[in-house]
Design goal:
This protein has helices spanning 10-23, 27-38, 53-57, 67-70, 135-145, 178-182, 255-259, 267-275; strands at residues 46-50, 65-66, 76-80, 87-91, 94-98, 104-106, 112-113, 115-119, 125-129, 152-168, 186-202, 213-220, 226-244, 246-250. The chain is α+β, with helices and mostly antiparallel strands and 277 residues long. Strands 6-5-4-3-8-1-14 form a 7-stranded mixed beta sheet, with no helix packed on it. A hairpin with a 5-residue loop joins strand 12 (213-220) and strand 13. The longest helix is centred in the N-terminal third of the chain and has 14 residues, at 10-23. The protein is globular. The model has no long low-confidence stretch (mean pLDDT 91). The structure holds zinc ion (ZN). Zinc ion binds at residues 78, 87, 215, 217, 228. The site of zinc ion has 5 residues, from strand 12.
Length: 277
């Protein structure tokens, strides 16, 4: 971090103080975000989410925005495609689509997205993990890297996986809930494969809009295979982590979203759909 000293006019200072008093933001934060806006710096530390996990549980699979529009808000993240047509992995500014037939392609810029989370990833910490023998083993190590239960975290985990199990949802043929769709998922197992896990940790209090806990998608280094992570084993992985204290959500105005009943707590169904293996 650098310390910036500069002279500003009294009127500008008055405005900064007024903002500080009314919004509670620190003066550091006000100036850093104003500079970032003025210099058109990507929104680091901001998550951009399309729709809610609760809507997905209710079967709202109609695309809300295009891949091209989504990728304006981040270079890193995960999601799914219209009608649940596979798993999305956004990595290094490229959006990949892993389909249930086992193929991975670069997603069509015009493809529609019903649910996704992206960020401009800028890791704050890089840590080497010791050997892990399961998904739960991995999450126990990742827990040590978070200093709070109340912010969002973006995670990038790279290395050679001795074993990895992923699933890819099948394109829905008609109206169905996420649990029904996930019941028809295709599962894939890989051994001794190099790749990257991309994803997020979401606080428990956000469980009606996102998937609480860890949610990770996998992409092999050759970009030929991937999916939603169910299990893994590895001897040495490198984790990069960034906290996110800003959260933006694009709420769809599609007909199915507007009519959906989103009053229920979706966490049980999400747990079943996202972690079943
Ligand atoms: Zn997923």
């Amino acid at each position: 971090m650098k310390i910036l000293k500069c002279r500003v006019s009294q009127s500008l200072w008055d405005l900064i103080e007024k903002r500080h008093k009314t919004s509670g933001e620190s003066i550091n934060h006000i100036i850093a975000t104003a500079l970032a806006d003025g210099l058109k710096v990507p929104d680091y530390g901001t998550l951009f989410q399309v729709s809610t996990s609760g809507a997905l549980v209710e079967g709202v699979y109609q695309g809300a925005i295009s891949v091209a529009e989504l990728m304006k808000h981040g270079d890193f993240g995960l999601g799914t495609f219209e009608d649940l047509d596979g798993e999305m992995v956004a990595l290094n500014g490229q959006c990949y689509q892993a389909r249930a037939d086992g193929t991975v392609t670069i997603a069509d810029q015009k493809a529609h997205v019903p649910f996704a989370v992206v960020t401009n990833f800028k890791p704050e910490q890089t840590v080497k993990l010791p050997s892990i023998s399961s998904f739960n083993g991995l999450t126990r190590h990742l827990d040590q890297l978070r200093n709070t239960e109340n912010l969002f975290f973006a995670l990038k985990i790279e290395g050679t996986f001795d074993y990895i199990k992923t699933r890819v949802v099948c394109k829905a043929k008609g109206p169905e809930t996420l649990v029904e769709s996930a019941g028809k998922q295709t599962e894939f197992e890989f051994s001794d494969v190099k790749g990257t896990l991309v994803g997020f940790w979401t606080p428990e209090y956000a469980r009606t809009i996102n998937i609480a806990g860890y949610h990770l998608h996998f992409l092999t280094d050759n970009h030929k295979s991937g999916g939603h992570l169910l299990d893994c084993r590895a001897k040495e992985l490198t984790v990069k982590i960034e906290h996110s204290a800003n959260f933006r959500m694009a709420i769809p105005e599609t007909a199915t979203f507007l009519k959906a009943d989103l009053t229920r707590d979706p966490s049980k169904e999400l747990d079943q759909a996202e972690r079943q293996h």
